[in-house]
Write a structure and sequence with these properties.
single chain; alpha+beta; Adenine-n6-DNA-methyltransferase TaqI, Chain A, domain 2; 4-stranded mixed beta sheet; 24 strands
Length: 406
């Protein structure tokens, strides 16, 4: 039978019925556009949602903008309501039609004109309907109905949504599916919160370590010597080794991944064999001054490879634990020092070796560097494990959506 899902609870049988989203959705109600600020609302302040509040099936009420003018507050309509589905009617081609379920009311946060609140008929399960509209098949159908001449912005109409063909089970089966998938969503929320808390903990403890509010001791309990300071050029030197046979992996240099082989992140930029000959060799433990380095883009490499000659490669020439500086060079403290030292730099440019050299770096004993690095690396391991669990759970949910819906 074509209208039967691949994965189904055993107490249900028979084909699902061919309907439209209008069979499930009572109305699509938009808010209005009002003047607002760039900052988010706090407490009972009034706010309007950003279109970025919905993406990939998740709703973030913190993605809002404060509305403080009395005349603008008076114009607000369509507050966030529980058991509705927030849907983006105008967005980029990838996110037009993006939607997410709202679990609780918030009468201080309102919809803009670019978002709809889909209100569900009493004959349907709101949770299941939300899962249907976020399923890969329905999201793809919504995207194909979007129109607009701009490549950066597309629109869908109420008719596009309400006439979209879907296949629907009984309300009882909807509720059973929704209950099961909600437990998966709860796991995703728990892992997301766990990752956020670990990131916050790491940030806080790094600040205390590098301010020397937290100090480590040697294995025998003795105190380590006081930290020294050295200029960047007293620890690192620029390296320009082009002695390779072009057989090493080409590294992508990014703030998100650090220095990583391009094929690992599907980074597609074509280069000629001739240009690769000019690429520089990067060794494990090297640092690369990247574009936008004034934002903290001095990246550590866990890989041996080659990178564009446009980058500056830094290599320690004294005995250090590079992992200590991998963490330090990403601290807010160091980034502020960078910005103070490079006034007038423009987006897209990177700092020079001379500018890097003029900034003092902490220089504890090698043994304490390793203690710090091991401790922070253990937190990174927990963060990475949580991220992997989160990724796997999201993939699991995606597979369930494909198999539990027609």
């Amino acid at each position: 039978m074509s209208n039967v899902p691949k994965l189904r609870f055993k107490e249900f049988s028979g084909e699902w019925e061919e309907k439209t989203l209008g069979y499930l959705i009572k109305s699509l109600d938009a808010g209005v556009s009002v003047n607002s600020t760039d900052k988010s609302a706090v407490g009972n302040e009034k706010a309007i949602l950003k279109t970025s509040c919905v993406s990939y099936g998740y709703f973030d009420i913190n993605e809002n903008k404060l509305v403080f003018e009395d005349n603008e507050i008076q114009r607000l309509k369509e507050p966030v309501q529980a058991n509705t589905i927030i849907m983006s009617r105008m967005n980029t081609p990838a996110l037009v039609g993006a939607n997410a379920f709202v679990k609780s009311d918030n009468n201080n946060v309102y919809l803009p004109d670019r978002l709809w609140a889909a209100k569900i008929k009493p004959t349907a399960s709101p949770e299941w309907t939300a899962m249907l509209t976020t399923s890969p098949k329905v999201r793809a159908l919504l995207s194909t109905r979007a129109t607009g001449t701009s490549n950066s912005m597309k629109n869908i109409t109420k008719g596009d949504v309400l006439t979209l063909p879907v296949v629907v089970p009984s309300k009882q089966e909807q509720e059973k599916i929704a209950s099961f998938l909600t437990s998966v969503d709860t796991k995703i929320e728990q892992l997301t919160k766990k990752e956020e808390l670990l990131q916050q903990y790491k940030k806080g403890v790094m600040q205390k370590i590098f301010n020397q509010e937290i100090r480590f001791k040697a294995d025998n309990g003795r105190e380590f010597p006081e930290w020294e300071e050295k200029n960047g050029n007293e620890i690192f030197e620029p390296i320009s080794n082009k002695n390779h046979n072009s057989d090493l992996p080409i590294l992508a240099i990014s703030q998100e991944y650090g220095a990583i082989p391009r094929e690992m992140i599907d980074y597609k930029i074509s280069v000629t064999d001739k240009s690769i000959e000019t690429y520089k060799v990067v060794e494990i433990g090297d640092f690369i001054i990247s574009l936008r380095s004034f934002q903290g883009g001095i990246e550590y490499s866990n890989y041996k490879g080659i990178c564009s000659p446009a980058y500056i490669i830094l290599r320690p020439f004294i005995d250090i634990d590079s992992r200590f500086y991998k963490h330090y060079l990403k601290t807010e403290r160091y980034i502020k020092l960078l910005n103070r030292n490079i006034e007038g730099i423009r987006d897209g440019k990177m700092i020079s070796y001379k500018q890097f050299s003029e900034i003092q770096l902490p220089y504890p004993s090698k043994e304490e560097q390793t203690k710090v690095a091991n401790f922070l690396s253990s937190i990174d391991t927990k963060i990475e494990q949580t991220q992997n669990q989160l990724k796997q759970t999201k993939e699991f949910k995606k597979a369930l959506l494909q198999q539990m819906f027609v």
